[in-house]
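During the reporting period the student researcher (J.K.) took over the structure-prediction task from the postdoctoral fellow and processed the backlog of single-chain submissions. One of the processed entries is reproduced below for the supervisory committee.
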Amino acid sequence: MRAIITTELQKVEASITQPMETTGKRTVLFFASLSVIAFLVNFCWESLHGLLYKAHPAMSASVYVPMMLSMAVMDTVAITALYSFTALISRSWFWTLGLPNSLIFIISGIVLACGVEYISIFILHLWQYGPSMPVLFGVGLFPSIQLSSTGFFSVIIARKVSGVC
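J.K. obtained the following C-alpha cells:
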C-alpha cells in the first residue's frame, strides 16, 4: 500500500513540475516574442504614419530614425503593459482571445493612446498634425488606434511563435 501511495505521489509531483518548467519557458518565449514583434510592427507603423505630422517629413534621417526607434520602444512597453493589465483582469497570463478579454485589451489601448496623444498635443505641445492626418475630437485617428491594432496583432503572432494558444 505504501509503495502505491509513494508511486502515485511521484506521478503527481512529476506532473506538477514538468508543466511549470514548460510554462516558465513558454512565458519567457511569449514575452520575448511579444516584445520583438511589437517593436518591429510599431517601428514600421511609426515610420509610415510619422509623415502625417508637421515637422517629420522635413527631418533628416539622422534625427528621424532614432526618434522612430524611441517611439517604437515606448509603444512596445505600452503594449506589454496593456497585455499585463488584461492578464490581471482575466487572472491568467495566457488569457483567451475571446470577446471579453479582447475588448479589455482593445478599449484600454484606445484610451491609453488617446490620453497620450491629447496630453502630447494640447498640454505639452510636443507635436502637431499635418493637414493629411484624419482627426477625431482633436486627436489623430491613426495614433488613437495604433496601440490596439499593433498590440493585438503582436499578441496573436507572439502566441503562435511561442506555442501559447
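The committee noted the following: Residues 2-162 form one domain.
J.K. will present the remaining backlog at the next meeting.
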